[in-house]
Design goal:
2 domains; Gyrase A, domain 2; alpha+beta
Length: about 220
């Protein structure tokens, strides 16, 4: 039973007193209804405000999540683009299969190039090769399981196929790397290189490897 305003005791035999009591009771009931409606109207704006605040919070959280995802994806794309950014060579790197080596300087009209070896001048006779103008990577690295250094060179996708065809036909033979009509190095092809990742081995010191890398860049 709800506890409300105290009820005034009314004598049973007084009609006027009973009417006054009924009027007073109706007034109290009307006042209670007004107070109840006023309280309901006061709660409604508060409830709407709370719902709006919750909605705004959810939207903010979702927006923040999208912003974070965008940054992560953008960062990944930037990193990928940095990994595959071409390195332009200062001069084209020509790669020719060596068909024959002859002691001494190449005679005039010979399709070949003269290089210096440990025994003196040598004429490297060449066949049709390819020209590389850009690479995706060119660096000096420590040789695996040794104290020497390698030059690692990674070709672009546009040159991989041509180099793969070239090395398939020259396994066990030499390739002449020529820059500005000068012989830079003559590595031996141990296997067909299909993925465009070339490793030139042999330099005994890091300084020598770095010099060879600069010559390959042109």
């Amino acid at each position: 039973m709800a506890v409300g305003a105290p009820v005034e005791a009314v004598p049973l035999g007084d009609p006027m007193a009973r009417r006054r009591a009924r009027v007073s009771e109706r007034q109290r009931s009307a006042a209670e209804v007004k107070r109840s409606r006023a309280a309901s109207r006061g709660r409604a704006p508060l409830d709407r405000a709370a719902r709006e605040n919750r909605t705004a919070l959810v939207v903010m959280v979702l927006t923040l999540g999208l912003m974070i995802a965008t940054v992560v994806v953008t960062g990944s794309l930037i990193a990928a683009s940095m990994d595959t950014r071409p390195v332009a060579l200062k001069a084209p790197l020509h790669v020719y299969p060596v068909t024959q080596t002859v002691p001494g300087q190449c005679p005039a009209g010979t399709q070949g190039i003269t290089g210096q070896t440990g025994v003196g001048l040598t004429c490297y006779q060449l066949s049709q090769g390819i020209a590389i103008r850009k690479v995706t990577d060119l660096r000096v690295q420590k040789a695996k399981g040794g104290s020497s250094y390698d030059i690692a060179l990674t070709l672009r996708s546009t040159d991989k196929k041509a180099f793969a065809t070239l090395t398939r036909a020259t396994v066990g033979r030499d390739l002449a790397f020529v820059v500005r009509e000068r012989l830079v190095t003559v590595p031996r092809v141990d296997m067909a290189i299909l993925d465009g990742k070339i490793v030139i081995t042999g330099p005994g010191s890091k300084a020598e490897a770095e010099r060879l890398m600069r010559e390959l860049k042109g």
